[in-house]
Design a protein that fits this description.
about 550 residues, mainly alpha, Methane Monooxygenase Hydroxylase, Chain G, domain 1, about 80% helix, Na/Pi_transpt, PhoU_dom
């Protein structure tokens, strides 16, 4: 008995571990393609379903896809209507796992895992390591399934277990419902329909359950898998909760109508498989047929379905949310390659706000605006906003560092953490520049015309410098760009020294007001600090990697 438990639980653990590595490896290999696929999403329901199939095929988990969808909807990156197509597609995409198991190379699981491990350990390039991870995961999936089959084998001759399994054989309506309920419960506990499909195949392969019972279990597993999205939607926005509910409704209704015509459905599956005696092929066919048919039935009515969901979970006027400026959501971490891509988009948006601050500072200086002007007020608002943006980006990026993601993802997350800190510092200094300027105005002191020209010249050089460095983030991070950045930095340092020395000479020769000189020098030094922070971004992007 102990040996049976060890083999079944051990096999399940190895299977889940394999699915995890297979999913991570596939995501890492897909890279930016995942983001491009998601970005091509439109309100076209058919395209939505196709994208759902592609994404789930790449990440090898409908649970990951649906949680990601909930996160996208919660962050405002996806509409409810768009999410419904993806969810229907995810249900089809997850059936790929069953067809992987149909390959029947379980006895080679150790060999595949071994080859994958060697490639992963000794591979030099990140892409090579990811290929090794995929093979390692695939090997463990087959190996885990074989362990489970071996674990279930002795139960075939145990009268107590035979009696237990016979209680939920799907030979009548009551048995079908009971078997489907068991499948739903198993998947809710394990939170992986792929794992429970593996268990079902193991049971059917050893003759502990009949093929017809296996099909009923598979139907129930489609309901159980919806628990993951439901849990992910807790505390999310109204639309995110609607998307999670949609996943449950689609699968519950689908299972209900299939159970109502179950004998007819089972006969169709048998005819499709030419009355095969292989339970793996039969169950994979049933899984795919159910989800494809269900998607075909729901797809034409997506618009009406979205309206129904809005009535089932109505918006409430008193719903309050904290101020949030980015489209980032912790649920996106289920797909780290997409998460890091979205994070980089937000860094780019942060850079645009810093550029806006540069433009506002220029206008304020040129027009001698005071603290009552809209431009000054906007500067303060932008700085407050960027403080929040930095925290939101840093929060998600820190989570990417704390998980077992690829080295490439970890490096990118580390870069982001430092870059947003530099950007926030630049915004602080731009605001300080205005504070120093306003302090002079409060004391009835205005900038000399010639020195204002010098200050604006320095400001323009720094603005252009920031533009250049900010573009490096989304372009080639080459040694050539580093050298160019270093030259620009040196040029600005020389300009700073010239302006400072000119002012000090003026101070000595004309006995300028000391308060004015201190204020002007502080403004110059603030620009010097901005220059250093801009160059630091270049070093993070190029020299530190």
């Amino acid at each position: 008995m102990n040996e049976i438990i060890l083999k079944v639980i051990g096999g399940l653990g190895i299977f889940l571990f394999g699915m995890h590595y297979l999913s991570n490896g596939m995501q890492n290999l897909a890279g930016n393609r995942l983001k491009k696929i998601i970005s091509s999403l439109t309100d076209n329901r058919v395209i939505g379903v196709i994208i759902g199939i592609l994404v789930t095929g790449l990440v090898q988990s409908s649970s990951i896809t649906t949680v990601m969808v909930v996160g996208f909807v919660n962050a405002g990156l996806m509409t409810l209507k768009q999410s419904l197509g993806l969810i229907l597609g995810a249900n089809i995409g997850t059936t790929i796992t069953g067809w992987i198991l149909v390959l029947k190379v379980g006895k080679y699981g150790q060999l595949i895992a071994g080859i994958g491990a060697l490639i992963f350990v000794f591979g030099k390039k990140e892409k090579t390591k990811n290929r090794g991870m995929v093979l390692l995961g695939l090997g463990f999936v087959f190996l885990g399934l074989e362990f489970m089959k071996e674990g279930f084998k002795p139960l075939g001759s145990d009268p107590n277990f035979i009696s237990l399994f016979h209680k939920f054989q799907a030979h009548n309506l009551k048995g079908i419902i009971l078997a489907a309920s068991v499948g739903a419960l198993m998947t809710s506990v394990v939170q992986s329909s792929s794992a429970t499909l593996g268990i079902t195949i193991g049971l059917a392969s050893q003759g502990l359950i009949t093929p017809v019972t296996g099909v009923a279990l598979v139907l129930g597993e489609n309901i159980g898998t919806t628990i993951t999205a439901f849990l992910a939607s807790i505390g999310a926005s109204v639309n995110a909760r609607r998307a999670a509910l949609a996943h449950t409704i689609v699968n519950v209704i689908g299972v209900t109508w299939v159970i109502s015509i179950f004998p007819f459905f089972y006969n169709i599956i048998q005819n499709i498989t030419n009355h095969t005696t292989d339970p793996t092929t039969l169950l994979a066919t049933a899984h795919t047929s159910f989800n494809v048919t269900n998607a075909l039935l729901f797809t034409p009515f997506i618009t009406y379905f979205a309206k129904l969901l809005e009535k089932l979970i109505p918006s409430t006027e008193d719903e309050t949310k904290e101020i949030k400026y980015t489209h980032l959501d912790v649920r996106m971490l289920e797909t780290p390659t997409i998460a890091i891509s979205n994070i980089n988009d937000e860094v780019e948006n942060m850079g645009k706000d810093v550029i806006k601050m540069f433009e506002l500072v220029k206008i304020i200086f040129e027009k001698n605006l005071d603290k009552t002007s809209n431009q000054v007020k906007e500067i303060f608002k932008l700085e407050d906003k960027l403080d929040i943006v930095q925290k939101e980006i840093s929060s998600i990026s820190s989570m990417l560092l704390g998980e077992n993601f690829s080295n490439e993802i970890s490096i990118e997350a580390k870069n982001v953490l430092t870059i947003v800190d530099e950007y926030e510092s630049i915004s602080d200094y731009l605001m300080s520049e205005i504070k120093l300027y306003l302090k002079l105005l409060d004391n009835n002191i205005t900038l000399d015309k010639a020195e204002k020209v010098d200050l604006l010249k320095l400001h323009s050089e720094l603005n252009n410098y920031f533009h250049f460095v900010n573009e490096i983030i989304s372009t080639e991070r080459t040694e050539e760009n580093y050298l160019k950045s270093f030259k620009v930095k040196t040029k600005i340092t020389t300009l700073f020294k010239e302006i400072r020395n000119t002012h000090l000479d003026e101070f000595r020769n004309t006995k300028k007001d000391l308060f004015y000189t201190i204020g002007y020098m502080d403004m110059l030094n603030t620009y010097r600090r901005i220059k250093n922070h801009i160059f630091q971004v270049t070093e993070i992007l190029i020299k530190e990697n």
